[in-house]
Amino acid sequence: MNGGSENATYFFQFGYLQEEGALKFTGYDRYNLRSNVTVDVNDWLTIGENAGLTYSEDYGDQSNNNEATVISDVYRMQPIVPIYDIMGAYGGTRASNTGNGTNGLWSLDFNQYDQTNGIDLSGSVFANADVTENIRLRTNVGFNYSGNDIKDYTYVQVAHAERDQFDGLTEAANFSRQWNWTEYRRIYEYVCGCTRCYSAGGS
Predict the structure, then answer these.
(1) Are the CB atoms for 147 and 119 separated by under 8 Å?
(2) CA distance 86 to 179
(3) CA dist., res. 70 & res. 60, Å (int)
């Protein structure tokens, strides 16, 4: 959505992305919002902002590229080990000489409620001022904030060769923020019909 008037312009954008993972109970959702606004306050002052906000949800099995991933468990599991045993429970490697792989379907089913949520906000606000005919000033303040929280459930798989002793829940969160302030000055000098420009900036 965009529009404006003689003294102002605006632009807003909203987006949504939903991706279903290749593995059971995994996926990724993302929401994003973008805005840009510029306003001519008067003949010599212009102010504006641009900002972007993103929120994401990554859910399901969160294992990384190591031997404990669902994919690696598929090819590490002995062919003799069934997905379910004769009692209908998840099959595993508790029997001798069947390796130490984890039942991949068990991992997907019991990690379906694991989730990582993330948020990111970044943008800037600025002001341009034509103080005189020959002097132009600009100031800009930029900012960035990002954070995420993680929830990881762990369960004991009774049929696993290297099973844990207790069920558990791990929660973690972290965030970071930064900002910067930049000033910019431009001075025009007219000498003998020629224009010279002197610029200086700092942050």
Answers:
(1) yes
(2) 61
(3) 12
